[in-house]
Amino acid sequence: MLDRLSALTAGGKSAWNPGQLATMERLRDAALNDPYALNELRHLTGNIGPRLSGSPQAEQAVYYVAARMSALGAEVSLEKATVPHWVRGVETAEVISWPGQAQGTTQKVVLTALGGSVATPAEGLTAEVVVVNDWKQLAALPPGAVKGKILLLNHKFDKELAAVGDGGAAYEGAVVYRGAGPVTGARLGAAAVLVRSVGGADFRLPHTGETIYSDAVPIIPAAAVTAEDADLLSYLVSQGPVKLHLTLTPQTLPDASSYNVIADWKGTEHPEQVVIVSGHLDSWDLGTGAIDDGAGVVVSMQAIHLLSQLGIHPRRIVRFIAWMSEEEGSQGAAAYMADHKDDIANHISAIESDLGADHPSGIYYSGKPELAQWLQPVSGVLDSIGAETLAASTETGADIEDLSGKGVPGFAPVQDSRTYFNYHHTAADTFDKIDPRHLNENAAVMAVLAYALADSADPAPR
Ligand SMILES: [Zn+2]
Fold this sequence. Notes:
This protein is of the alpha/beta class. The chain has helices at residues 2-8, 18-33, 36-48, 56-71, 135-139, 159-163, 167-187, 227-237, 290-310, 331-339, 370-374, 376-382, 401-405, 420-423, 436-455, and strands at 75-87, 91-97, 107-108, 111-113, 125-132, 150-153, 192-196, 222-225, 243-248, 251-265, 270-280, 316-323, 347-352, 360-366, 389-392, 410-415.
């Protein structure tokens, strides 16, 4: 509060005059009461559905969003990105032998292929299961212990950490096993790698997600098992040999052509300067990509919609971007960086929303520490919706991190992440998980911040 007062009373030092602050309040209030973002999300998730890179739904979403943005009066362009085209297949597993087994029975293991996984033979593969809880236990195994086996990396997602509000840290702690597990297992001669699902789902739901292969080692099948099934396998393996039959039949098709959807709301004074407001349009295929990241796309669409509705024309361009293929390697963001490499200096700021749509408590910023003081007046406008905190962060979004790396200040709403990772990358990432009030609070943060960055007297400090 004192910081804010001193910023407001510092006279000419505020980047916004009272008229601009009043405009921010209008944007905030309009966002809270406008069903546009919710309706767009309902269409993206319910009518179009999951939007995996290279899929017909991703393509339809590109043209749909482009048409909607065009209808608002924004200048729309589709910028090409070459993206992976991976298609999920059959994914089943059964424990076929274990200590104490009733004769003639098997036990089902619920799992889902990791994005990009190669297939097992069509009839599946059968191998003994080796379970470790972390890299240290893996390194302590005798030589050859994993050779020809199915390796389960049973690293637990820290639900307590997520429950106290640090879902991002819980995710970071576990996702390394999903990313690096298959290469690590292959290096040790494993036939396949399973990872305990990275997330907090309690209802025997597997969480998919990207994995990373290397040309230096064999490429082996990789899947995520539910937390419940990881516990079962771990329990049985502690008693004696356990054999699993695993069938995965995903396909990697030739790379596909796709697009980032770009929609510019023209600037009045600095037509070359750009403020990005964005989310990623692609999603995993198990659910309908409501929280990840349909929500980020529609709250960004809402920023342009409100500028259009209220007839607001900031000094700089507000550039909406619906990024393509964040989930499978951020190929859309890489294409943008390549296409705009000579124009980075004109990128004044970039915002991305990619942590769901629960209540935002404020704004993450990545860049100069001065940004916190500079943004105090904006924080004041967001105080009434409980979104007044300003928190430094090293990363504000996977699609804008390369821009941040080149010195462009990056921003994101600080969404409440306590339940986000329960649904993230699962079949339960669906429209009903969205609280309309919270979605609109996120839209308010995006619209107010985008306007503030695009209309400030001087650009954001960098
Ligand atoms: Zn995402």
